[in-house]
Write a structure and sequence with these properties.
There is one protein chain. It contains 14 helices and six strands. The protein is an alpha+beta fold and 375 residues long. Strands 3-2-1-6-5-4 form a six-stranded antiparallel sheet. The longest helix is centred in the middle third of the chain and has 38 residues. The N and C termini lie far apart (65 Å).
C-alpha cells in the first residue's frame, strides 16, 4: 500500500526556497539534462526594477546582484505584451545587444533560453529563466513537459513571497491603525528600505550575500521601528526633548518590536519561514552601535548582525535628509559627512562607504519618493 514515493515530497519540508528550486531543477534534469540554469527575477512595479532573486545554477552566477528597469528591455517587455513565454534557441541573436544582462549571459556561454512570465492572482510578479549550454534544445515536445515545472516553481516562489507579504500587510495595517506617524511616513519607509537594498547589493560580493538575502532586507527594512506601536503617544509624538525616563520608554520599542513580530509569526504559523531571523534582527537590533553604546543589549562590532548594521545606516541617512517639524532636511553631502564621522565608532564603515558610492541611485530614489506635506 505504501510502495509509491512522492518525488516532490521534499517540497513540503522547511528547506528554504533555494533548496526547493535546486531540488526541482535536479528532478527536471533527469528528463532534460541540457537545462543548466533556472533563475527567477522579481519585479518592483513602483520603480520598474526587475531584480535577480534566486537561481539553481551552482557555480555559474552570471547575473547575481543584478537589477535593470523592465521598461528599458524591449525583449522582456515583448513577453508581457504578447502574453506568452519566449523561446530563444540561439542566443547569438543577442550577441550585439548593449544591455548588461545580455552581455553577461553571452559571456557565460549559454546558447539557448526559455523565459516564462510569473503571475500571482493576475498580477505580474517577475520572470523565470531556463538556460542551456546546448544549441537548439527547447523543442515543442520538451517545452510541453518543462511548462508544468515552470508553474510549480512559480507557485513555490509565490507561496514564499505571499506568506511574507501577508505578514507585512498585517503589521503595516496595525501600525497605521495605531496612528504611528513620527518618522514612519510612507515615503520614509519607501526610501530607507531601498537605501538598505543599495547597501546590501554593494556588500554582496564582499560578504557573500545571496540575492534572496538582499531582497529580504528590502522587504523587512520598513518594519525596523514597528515596536513604536507600543509606545504611548505622549512620548512618541512629543515635540520637545524627552526626559531620561521617557527616553528609556522610547528605547523599549526595539524589544516591543521583537515581541510583536514573534507573536504575529506564531499567529500566522510562519515561525518556520526561512530567513525570518533577518526580520527579528532588524526590529530588535538596529539601534546597536559598534562601540557598544547602543541598545537594547549594548552589543559590539561583529556581534551585531549585518542586516541590523545595514538598516541603521539607511535609516539614519534618510532621517538626516528628510524635513521634520523640528529640523530642515540636510543635503546628501552633509548627511554623508555625518555618517563618515561616526563610521567605525557607532556605524559600520563598510555600510557607510557602500551607501556613499550610490549617489545617482539615491537621487533617483529621493526624486521618486518625495516627502508628502507631513513627511
Amino acid at each position: 500500500m505504501f510502495d509509491h514515493e512522492d518525488q516532490f515530497n521534499p517540497l513540503d519540508r522547511n528547506i528554504g526556497l533555494v533548496k526547493k528550486l535546486e531540488y526541482i531543477h535536479a528532478t527536471l534534469k533527469e528528463r532534460f539534462p541540457f537545462i543548466s540554469r533556472i533563475a527567477a527575477a522579481i519585479y518592483d512595479p513602483e520603480t520598474d526594477l526587475l531584480k535577480t532573486f534566486v537561481h539553481s545554477s551552482g557555480g555559474d552566477q552570471p547575473l547575481s546582484h543584478y537589477q535593470a528597469k523592465l521598461g528599458e528591455s524591449q525583449s522582456l517587455r515583448e513577453i508581457l505584451e504578447k502574453g506568452r513565454p519566449r523561446v530563444v534557441n540561439n542566443l547569438e541573436i543577442f550577441a550585439t545587444a548593449d544591455k548588461e544582462h545580455a552581455k553577461r549571459i553571452s559571456a557565460q556561454g549559454y546558447q539557448a533560453s526559455y523565459t516564462m512570465p510569473m503571475y500571482s492572482s493576475g498580477n505580474f510578479l517577475g520572470f523565470l529563466f531556463f538556460n542551456s549550454y546546448a544549441d537548439t534544445p527547447f523543442s515543442e515536445e520538451a517545452l510541453q513537459q518543462i511548462d508544468p515545472f515552470g508553474h510549480l516553481i512559480s507557485l513555490t516562489i509565490i507561496h514564499e513571497l505571499s506568506s511574507l507579504h501577508t505578514l507585512l500587510a498585517t503589521v503595516k495595517t496595525a501600525r497605521d491603525m495605531a496612528h504611528v506617524r513620527d518618522n514612519e511616513t510612507g515615503t520614509h519607509l519607501d526610501r530607507m528600505s531601498r537605501y538598505a537594498r543599495l547597501i546590501a547589493n554593494k556588500l554582496a560580493d564582499r560578504y557573500q550575500l545571496s540575492d534572496e538575502y538582499v531582497e529580504n532586507i528590502f522587504i523587512f527594512a520598513p518594519l525596523h521601528d514597528i515596536g513604536k506601536i507600543g509606545i504611548p503617544d505622549d512620548i512618541l509624538l512629543k515635540r520637545g526633548k524627552l526626559s531620561e525616563q521617557e527616553r528609556e520608554v522610547m528605547k523599549s520599542h526595539t524589544l516591543k518590536g521583537r515581541e510583536l513580530i514573534d507573536r504575529m509569526l506564531g499567529n500566522f504559523k510562519l515561525d518556520g519561514l526561512q530567513h525570518i531571523d533577518i526580520l527579528r534582527n532588524i526590529a530588535e537590533l538596529h539601534h546597536e552601535s559598534l562601540d557598544g553604546s547602543g541598545y537594547p543589549y549594548g552589543r559590539q562590532g561583529g556581534d551585531i548582525p549585518l542586516e541590523s548594521r545595514i538598516v541603521a545606516v539607511a535609516d539614519i541617512f534618510d532621517a538626516l535628509t528628510s524635513r521634520r517639524p523640528y529640523k530642515p532636511a540636510w543635503t546628501n553631502e552633509e548627511a554623508f559627512a555625518f555618517l563618515k564621522d561616526f563610521a567605525g565608532a557607532k556605524l559600520d564603515p563598510d555600510c557607510v562607504q557602500a551607501l556613499a558610492e550610490c549617489h545617482a541611485e539615491i537621487e533617483e530614489i529621493q526624486h521618486q519618493f518625495r516627502e508628502d506635506p507631513v513627511g
